[in-house]
Amino acid sequence: MEEVKLMKGNEAFAEAVIRSGCDGYFGYPITPQSEVMEYLMKEDPELKRTGMVVLQAESEVSAINMVYGGAGCGKRVMTSSSSPGMSLKQEGISYIAGAELPCLILNVARGGPGLGTIQPSQADYFQSVKGGGHGDYRMIVLAPASVQEMADFVSLGFDLAFKYRIATLILSDGVIGQLMEKVILPEERPRWTEAEIIKNTPWATTGKTPDRERNIITSLDLDPAKQEQHVYKLEAKYNEIEKNEVRYEEIKCDDAEYVVVAYGSAARICQKVVDLARAEGIKLGVFRPITLFPFPKKQIRALGQRVKGMMSVEYSLGQMVEDVQLAVGGALEVQFYGRVGGMIPTPEEVLEAVKSKLIKK
Amino acid sequence: MSIVKPENLVYTKTKLMTDKTLSYCPGCGHGVVHRMIMEVVDQMNIQDKTIGIAPVGCAVLAYDFMNVDMQQAAHGRAPALGTAIKRLQPDKYVFTYQGDGDLAAIGTAETIHCCNRGEDIVMIFINNAIYGMTGGQMAPTTLANMPSSTSPYGRDVARMGYPLKITEMVAPLAGVYNCSRHSVHTPVAVRRLKRAIQKGFEAQAAKKGITFIEVVSNCNSGWKKTPNDANKWMEENLFPVYPIGDIKVDGNMVEK
């Protein structure tokens, strides 16, 4: 039977984590995502539900390294944070990428730079999709636009992480994290047994048995020729992900003459803009990338060849717009509209930008 | 005539050490400490239950030499890895292996909080008062007036801070069950270390909390001394600041 609830994005996420067969959560409090760990601690799944470990670490640095350790054991582990905390996690994320460890990370983004503000922001796009840590690496980045997707992306994120031995980042924002709306909770999946872990993750440090060589989790190779081969192997994996895992949503793009590109909660606002625009006879559509890496390049390129104008709408000074322009190529000059510092644009404001920047051009 | 006969063979290569040639400098204590850990694992028959964590530093390749499952941590983060590994696989034996820069500088927070939570793991701390791998820079444990490549005129404590006795800092924490300081420059000292490691592995099986083991070791290359001179210098200069002995035994601080 469907379980429908009215929940905050952060809480729906946390409930979905328990139901996903997750083995361990390691976090550190930061607004606006603290409800994730608060919910998990209140539910106390270690003693009362699935046996999942929930631990409050001494820092985000420690939390992401706990994720590294747990993931290295073949366990389903995760952490969550918000922008300033995500900066601290970048070192660990780079090591996780190098050692090819599967895990799930949630960023309920807030305004920066620095301590910035606790209000919503999308200014962590570059950090998320270009690699905020050192070295050539990628994460799969999912951008939820509803409380439902906050819940649904947990199991999807874990599945993708284990399919490719990669970190999946859910790039949410303060709007989606704090928003309360209806959510259909996912079915409960059992945690893997020890035997399943050994079968599914034969590379993990589960204890060296006589039937195999010792397993080593490391990102180090002092021989540059070998390290180069390792990075090429990572590249091949990222290419495979770009081929197979692009996800997006088109809203009234079929007959659109103009398209706004937006992700996460900004796409929700833009959906309202489409209604307002169409009421005035402007044929506007929204293209919503759901995966920010892999980025829906082909789909945006095709749209760019068809429509009269395209504009990226973000809570930033313009970050995703660079990828949209790269995808479109020379077909169009992609416009941009955004608010920063925790400010959220109203649909009317965006409609005004559509008229002044897109149509009058 | 063969001198070595099976019946008088009293010393063999440690079974759980791999055949890989050690990357350490001649005379360095790391190899001995590796061996003692592997001898304990072998004698307790827990190879299939042991997970080690290698640091950043000279021992970064420790996983090349010890034949157990291992993870290599970011600089200073081994206790965070150890925490998760043990929490998620509570039936396993977990040890971290860290140097002074790793454990007492960049990883100070991870060290203290892991100890404070009383994770059921063994922490091995090699203190040679210098950053060996990066070429002899000043460590948190570098002695006052001791020269290093980043304190070429000697550690000026007024400007560079004092030698950090992190072992004495963590010992009183409630999560720490055993805490002791050792060396590996004499056979007696090596045997004493091995007993401490074994006691630590037994303590984690009994879920007693942290066993924190410091090994004051030499760094011939970093100190620019021959192995013999380095050991002598260690006894004369390091031991007075970092005295060998038990600090906490079975949860009780040792009265001095």
Q: What is shown here, in short?
A:
Chain A is α/β, with parallel strands linked by helices and 361 residues long. Chain A is built from 14 helices and 15 strands. Chain B has an eight-stranded mixed sheet with strand order 2-1-3-4-8-7-9-10, sandwiched between helices. In chain B, strands 5-6 form a two-stranded antiparallel sheet.
Can you put this structure into words, describing what you see?
The complex is a heterodimer of chains A (361) and B (256). Chain A has two domains: 4-194, Rossmann fold (3-Layer(aba) Sandwich); 248-359, Rossmann fold. Helices cover 44% and strands 19% of the residues of chain A. Chain A is built from 14 helices and 15 strands. In chain A, the strands form three sheets. A seven-stranded mixed β-sheet of chain A has the order 3-2-4-5-7-6-13, with helices on both faces. In chain A, strands 10-12-11-14-15 form a five-stranded mixed β-sheet, with helices on both faces. In chain A, α1 packs across α7 (147-164) and α12 crosses α13 (320-328). The relative contact order of chain A is 0.13. With 256 residues, chain B is α/β, with parallel strands linked by helices. In chain B, the strands form two sheets. Chain B has an eight-stranded mixed β-sheet, sandwiched between helices. In chain B, strands 5-6 form a two-stranded antiparallel ribbon. In chain B, a hairpin with a 2-residue loop joins β9 (245-249) and β10. The termini of chain B are far apart. The mean pLDDT of chain B is 96. At the A-B interface, α4, α5 and β9 of A face β1, β2, α2 and α4 of B.
H-E string of chain B? HEEHEHHEEEHHEHEHHEE
Q: What is the count of distinct domains of chain B?
A: 1
Supply the helix-strand structural class of chain B.
alpha/beta
Q: Greatest interface and its residue counts?
A: A-B, 38 and 33 residues
CATH superfamily of the largest domain in chain A: Thiamin diphosphate (ThDP)-binding fold, Pyr/PP domains
The largest sheet of chain A, given as strand count, sense and whether it forms a barrel, is: 7 strands, mixed
Question: Quick one: overall form of chain B?
Answer: globular
Strand order of the largest sheet of chain A: 3-2-4-5-7-6-13
Say which CATH homologous superfamily of chain B is assigned: Thiamin diphosphate (ThDP)-binding fold, Pyr/PP domains
Fraction of residues of chain B in helices?
A: 25-40%
Beta fraction of the residues of chain B?
A: 15-25%
- Mean pLDDT over the residues of chain A: 97
What fold name goes in the CATH topology slot of the largest domain in chain A? Rossmann fold
